[in-house]
Amino acid sequence: MTRTPVKPSSISPEFYEKWTRDEMEERVRAIKQALGDKLVILGHHYQKDEVFQFADFTGDSLKLAQLAAQQQQASYIVFCGVHFMAETADILTAGHQTVILPDLKAGCSMADMADDEQVEECWDILTDLFGQTIVPMTYVNSTAAIKAFCGLHGGITCTSSNAKKMFQWAFEQKERILFLPDEHLGRNTAASLGLELEEMAVYNPLTRELEHVQTELKNIKVILWKGFCSVHQHFKLEHVETVRKRDPEMRVLVHPECCYEVVSAADDSGSTEYIIKQVKQAPSGAKWAIGTEVNLVQRLAQNHPEQTIRLLNDMICPCLTMNRIDLPHLLWALESIHSGEIVNTIRVPEEVAGPAKLALDRMLALS
After folding, report:
1. Of 2, 1, 5, 84, nearest to 336 (Cα)?
2. For residue 105, how many other CB atoms are within 10 A of its CB?
3. Is the predicted pLDDT of residue 7 greater than 80, yes or no?
């Protein structure tokens, strides 16, 4: 049965829940065919399979934003990810391109842990303590406003795969780094460069104080923002120890957003792309306990039945915000483009986009 197209302005995504999956998929394919190269759908690795299957490009957030910028023929970029990813895509794409997020409630709890007012306040406090000795650096998993702050203060962005290189660059600029918004990626990266835990402190935006200060202030080299990924924080040292006891041949592979104790105990750690690469090049019979988002681990297990792949913690649920975009929302967004009544456009104001791009460009020039 072929459904009659409807005007998105007259319905909500819930309208499509009355359709069968086959009907929705058929309509998505029809719209993709009708729009041709005017449309590009981006799918982050953490997305549900029902959405991921329709992605023209898949990858991590920065890779997808860069790919979107390369598709000059595309007028519409539908980003199946979360809000900060769509913002980055809007910053990097051309003026004639429109970025759309199928569900505006698809956010990132980590990115939301640092807002621009808190960071401005933090900066005032830290510069009173340390003077002009700090370079701000933000993980790309942050809002456009935080990227803009870094851009305006001579700082830079980083990804989980290039964080070490960006730290090295920052230390060539000044004595200290303020790392936003994930304390775990910051701590793990600093440790990989040989810094001691005593050389790091944590800034708590709620109390406006430095925590975990174990030395004189003059010896602190990295100030970590007190933020975390709501998924990766649930991987604990006890889960690594349980895997070791249950099957000593199973390798533990985790994302560096996990805490220091877990990353230190794991056999290996790396970005989402790194995790995928390690599994792809592993021999048949390889065994993995992977500490990262559920949808990705399950997809890796499905794609590599010749290996044993499981979650490091079986009790982990999918990222609730990453998991918000479903087939009804994707179809609703596509219908809006097809009808000319576009919904959920992501536009970063120029006064924010300009300095945010400075921070991104500094990173890209080093990558």
Report:
1. 5
2. 12
3. no
Q: Give whole-number Cα distances, 179 to 20, 39, 157, 170, in Å.
A: 46, 36, 10, 11
**What residues contact residue 4 under an 8 Å CB cut-off, 6+ apart?**
none
Nearest to 344 by CA among 114, 22, 65, 9: 9
Q: Is the peptide bond before 181 cis (omega within 30 degrees of 0)?
A: yes
The strand ranges marked E within 73-133 are: 76-80, 98-100
pTM of structure: 0.93
pLDDT at residue 335 above 80? yes
Residues 183 and 141 sit within 8 Å (Cβ to Cβ)? no
For 26, 88, 214, 236, the CA distances from 259, given in Å and listed in that order, are 43, 26, 19, 8
Joined tokens for residue 328? 């009804």
| Cα torsion angle, 96, 102, 105, 108, sign | negative
Tell me phi and psi for residue 104, to 5 degrees. -65, -15
Say how far apart CA 227 and CA 112 lie, in whole Å. 9
Q: What is the mean pLDDT of residues 27-36?
A: 97
Contact predicate 126/143, CB 8 Å: no
Span 116-150, pLDDT tens digits: 999 999 999 999 999 999 999 999 999 999 999 99
> How many Å apart are CA 97 and CA 264, to the nearest integer?
43
**What tokens were used for 96?**
């004639």
Q: From residue 129, give the alpha-carbon distance in Å to each of 133, 216, 217.
A: 10, 12, 8
C-alpha of 175 from chain center: 28
